């Protein structure tokens, strides 16, 4: 690798996915495109989203409520268009995916089915400093079940002086709680450090002690390799507004392993949209679930939200998710190389990368701890048209995403960062 604009441009010229950038609306200021490295927060808008939504609006104007059954694209079947491309992204079977609600809501719903404390077996293992919404979900859900969060929630932290959590520490905590563990609910990729966890090993360890394993994939879905079905994961939930580019407040999704689809011993919260399809509109008493993950659906979904999701999933399918992962890794590798160069050219290290470097343990996000004047540097980046993310007390997170970011942008980011640190 070279720290050189011409080299970055050469990488872009050789990039087989470079044309996908044209599928997106890149934010610009006075005609100059900005560097948007916030795809881990809200992915950019695909150009085709507006026309997908417009089609739904036209259906609505033409048929009113009958648009559920009439027209070119009846809304009753809209969900079917989403689950195949989405299943390919999370490594599931289409029947194991349901597109519904939003992430925190879905986590609660999955807890209803998969957190079934029995006597002593009531503990939940999770990451310390999980995303706040997950923490509030745990706290309130456990309390609603009449249990004390302080007693049942076991948080695993990085070791002193380390930023990421060691797999061996997660596995040994699972073994330590072999007799009282009900559930391991973990993040697939930590939002702060960018660390990707070994979901297969965590799932195997949980199952070995008779517990369930579920994952919050907010920062993993559409970013890193997932093989949920093959790994035997019990359930997972994610949002679609980050790497999946489906718009602010986009519809979320959940995965439920097929072994549970017809397991009637499982508890769940139900609504009419999860009712078996052929007789749903008979409106009879007694809940009969759809025998797939769709059986966890509750409410009438919004075809408008679905349309935005479909527009984006079409782009993923055209690009090929494996190709995207390769490019995402190449972008973050290039960034790590340039960040090392910044440290090497300074008298003493000016920043510390807290994202793991091996490809199995990272996606495209890179988090760096700034040793001095972090916020000033961050503000300078923003003035220079670079969108990054600031996390207190001193971390800058960036996500060069493979669908619309370029190697030249990574180079521009690193150059601007270097200058901002020097000044
Ligand atoms: C890891 C993680 N969990 C949960 C959430 C909350 O998601 P939502 O607001 O869609 O419920 C987020 C949002 O960014 C997140 O990053």
From TrEMBL:
Gene behind the chain: kynU
Documented EC number(s): 3.7.1.3
Keywords: Hydrolase, Pyridine nucleotide biosynthesis, Pyridoxal phosphate
Presence of keyword Hydrolase: yes
Lineage: Bacteria, Pseudomonadati, Bacteroidota, Chitinophagia, Chitinophagales
Catalytic reaction list: L-kynurenine + H2O = anthranilate + L-alanine + H(+); 3-hydroxy-L-kynurenine + H2O = 3-hydroxyanthranilate + L-alanine + H(+)
Family: Belongs to the kynureninase family.
PANTHER family given in the database record: KYNURENINASE
A Pfam family reported for this protein in Swiss-Prot or TrEMBL: KYNU_C
Transmembrane spans: none
Name under which the protein is recorded: Kynureninase
Pathway in which this enzyme or protein is active: Amino-acid degradation; L-kynurenine degradation; L-alanine and anthranilate from L-kynurenine: step 1/1; Cofactor biosynthesis; NAD(+) biosynthesis; quinolinate from L-kynurenine: step 2/3
SUPFAM superfamilies: PLP-dependent transferases (SSF53383)
Subunit and partners: Homodimer.
Residues that coordinate or bind pyridoxal 5'-phosphate: 103-104, 131-134, 216, 219, 241, 272, 300
């Amino acid at each position: 690798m070279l720290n050189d604009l011409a080299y970055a441009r050469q990488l872009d010229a050789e990039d087989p996915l470079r044309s996908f950038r044209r599928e997106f609306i890149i934010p610009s200021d006075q005609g100059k495109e900005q560097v948007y490295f916030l795809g881990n927060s809200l992915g950019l808008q695909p150009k085709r989203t507006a026309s997908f939504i417009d089609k739904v609006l036209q259906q609505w104007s033409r048929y009113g409520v009958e648009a559920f059954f009439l027209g070119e694209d009846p809304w009753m079947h809209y969900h079917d268009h989403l689950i195949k491309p989405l299943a390919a992204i999370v490594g599931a079977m289409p029947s194991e995916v349901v597109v519904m609600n939003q992430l925190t809501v879905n986590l609660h719903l999955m807890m209803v089915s998969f957190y079934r404390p029995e006597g002593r077996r009531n503990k939940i293992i999770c990451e310390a400093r999980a995303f706040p919404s997950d923490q509030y979900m745990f706290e309130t859900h456990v309390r609603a079940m009449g249990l004390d969060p302080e007693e049942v929630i076991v948080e695993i932290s990085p070791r002193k002086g380390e930023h990421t959590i060691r797999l061996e520490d997660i596995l040994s905590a699972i073994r330590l709680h072999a007799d009282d563990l009900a559930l391991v609910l973990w993040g697939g990729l930590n939002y702060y450090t960018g660390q990707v966890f070994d979901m297969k090993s965590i799932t195997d360890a949980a199952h070995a002690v008779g517990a369930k394993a579920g994952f919050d994939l907010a920062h993993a879905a559409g970013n890193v390799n997932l093989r949920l079905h093959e790994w035997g994961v019990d359930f997972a939930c994610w949002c679609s507004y980050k790497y999946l580019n489906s718009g602010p407040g986009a519809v979320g999704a959940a995965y439920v392993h097929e072994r549970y689809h017809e397991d009637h011993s499982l508890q769940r919260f139900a609504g009419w949209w999860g009712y078996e399809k052929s007789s749903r509109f008979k409106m009879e008493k007694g809940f009969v679930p759809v025998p797939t993950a769709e059986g966890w659906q509750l409410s009438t979904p919004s075809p408008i939200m679905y349309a935005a999701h479909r527009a984006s999933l079409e782009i993923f399918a055209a690009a090929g998710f494996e190709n995207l992962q390769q490019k995402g890794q190449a972008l973050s590798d290039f960034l790590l190389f340039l960040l090392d160069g910044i440290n090497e050219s300074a008298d003493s290290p000016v920043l510390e990368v807290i994202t793991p470097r091996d490809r199995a343990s990272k996606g495209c996000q890179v988090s760096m701890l700034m040793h001095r004047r972090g916020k000033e540097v961050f503000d300078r980046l923003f003035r220079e048209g670079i969108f990054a993310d600031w996390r207190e007390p001193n971390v800058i997170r960036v996500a060069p995403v493979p669908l619309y970011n370029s190697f030249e942008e990574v180079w521009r980011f690193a150059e601007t960062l270097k200058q901002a640190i020097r000044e």
